[in-house]
Amino acid sequence: MAGSTTEERTPRGERRQESSGPPPVRRLGRRHLRVIVVLAIALAFAGSGAFWLLYGSDLVRAEKVSVSGTRILTPAQVREAADVPLGEPLISVDTDAIASRLSRKLPRIDTVDVDRSWPHGIALKVTERTPVLLVQKGGKFIEVDDEGVRFATVSRAPKGVPALELAVSRTGSAAPSLRRFGEERLVREAVRVARAVPAAVAQTTRSVKVRSYDAISLELKDGRTVDWGSGEQGAAKGRTLTALMKAAPGARHFDVSVPTAPASSGS
Questions:
Q1: What is the 3-state composition of the chain as percent helix, strand, coil, each rounded to the nearest 5?
Q2: What angle do CA 7, 11, 12 make, to 5 degrees?
Q3: What is the CATH number of domain 60-128?
Q4: Which of 104, 145, 151, 248 is the most exposed place for a label (fewest CB within 10 A)?
């Protein structure tokens, strides 16, 4: 009896199927390859278009400069010092270089933000330094900010800004203070004191006098004086001075150099 064939050994209702054509996976891989090539070509065209738009087109070039935040300076002064390269592609304008030029040419500027304002503008947001003390030199006044920076010379004293008097002797007992700290450090200590003075007292302060690092005093517009000492413990000295002035309203001299042991005199 002849043996069973392969077809007969196959379960009923099932027949072995012969493969025809390439595997589906291979066809899918070719399809993906075509998609990737098309996308790459599209991206290349898009990239070249974006490059042309940013660097070659007249649609996004620097054409105007806006200025905000000025108080003493004028927008025209800021624009001139900024020297923005008008007509250049906006993307290639060096904003850091503009900020550097402004700080160098206009010391009155404390900080400046330089931003691109698409599609045609450069925006300059300026913050000017505020004087807290004045140094008189000849008939003019040098403005000193809250960091001790001497940033501008003006012909008229700004209203409400006290004078700085450097009465430091280069000989005698005060000389070591000058040699140790230097004039600039003493100026910064005076600024530190001026910032710590209570607002009500600051409004009536005529001058801040520096004799040495730890011998700084205030002269008020009505002739009263305050021994402040060094710039240390400024907040405590300010609170003590306010309380002392309320407790002795007729006094002419106040000493808060040691805030835990204040004194007043000269009613």
A1: 40, 25, 35
A2: 90
A3: 3.10.20.310
A4: 104
